[in-house]
Design a protein that fits this description.
- By secondary structure, the chain is of the alpha+beta class.
- It has one domain: 2-Layer Sandwich (YaeB-like fold).
- Helices cover about 35% and strands about 30% of the residues.
- It has a 4-stranded mixed beta sheet.
- It is globular.
Length: about 100
C-alpha cells in the first residue's frame, strides 16, 4: 500500500445535503446531544482519514469508493483523488430510506 498524503477533505453537494437531512432528522427525532454526536463522528472521521486515507475498505459496487462505518447507523462513502478525499455521501440508517432514493 503506497503512502498517500492528503491535503484536504471536500464534501460534494450530495454529501452536504445528506448531512443537512441527517441533522434535521436528528433534531426532530432525538436531542441536541445526538446532533452534536453526529458532528463529532464526522470530525473524528476527518482526523483519521486525513492521516490514513486507505484505512477503510473499498466497496464492491463502485470503483475506488470506500465506506467508513463511523457508528452502527452512520456510514460515509468517499474516494481518494490525488491529495484530496472527496466525501460522496453520508448515510444514516435511522432515517427513512426514501430520503436517499
Amino acid at each position: 500500500m503506497s503512502e498517500i498524503r492528503i491535503k484536504q477533505i471536500v464534501y460534494t453537494s450530495t454529501s452536504l445535503s445528506n448531512a443537512t437531512a441527517i441533522k434535521k432528522y436528528l433534531s426532530n427525532k432525538f436531542s441536541q446531544k445526538e446532533v452534536d454526536h453526529f458532528f463529532s463522528l464526522l470530525q473524528s472521521f476527518e482526523s483519521v482519514v486525513i492521516s490514513y486515507p486507505q484505512l477503510y475498505p473499498k466497496t464492491t459496487k463502485k470503483k475506488n469508493v470506500r465506506r467508513a462505518v463511523l457508528s452502527k447507523p452512520l456510514s460515509v462513502f468517499y474516494r481518494i483523488e490525488k491529495s484530496t478525499v472527496e466525501v460522496l455521501a453520508i448515510l444514516d440508517n435511522r432515517c427513512d430510506f426514501e430520503v436517499w432514493i
